[in-house]
Amino acid sequence: MKTRSKIQEQHSRCNGEGYLIGVGSYDMTGPAAGVNMMGYANMDQSTAGVHFRLRARTFIVAENSQGPRFGDLYTEENVAISGIHTHAGPGGYLQYLVYSITSLGFVQQSFDAIVNAIEQSIVQAHHNLKPGSVFINKGDVVNAGINRSPSAYLLNPAEERARYPSNVDTLMTLLKFVDDASGNSVGAFSWFATHGTSMSKNILLISGDNKGAAARFFEDWFSSSSSSTTSYNSSSTTPAGERQFQKAAHLFTTATQQLTGTIDYRHVYLNFTDIEVELLDGNKKVKTCPAALGPGFAAGTTDGPGASASSKAIQSRLPKAQTVLLDTGEMFVPYAWAPAVLPIQMLRLGNLIILSVPGEFTTMAGRRLREAVKETLINNSNGEFDDETHIVIAGLTNTYSQYIATFEEYAQQRYEAASTLYGPHTLSAYIQEFEKLAKAMAKGEKITKGPHHQIFPLCNSEIT
Question: Which of 97, 245, 330, 419 has the fewest CB atoms within 10 Å, counting from its CB?
Answer without folding.
Answer: 330
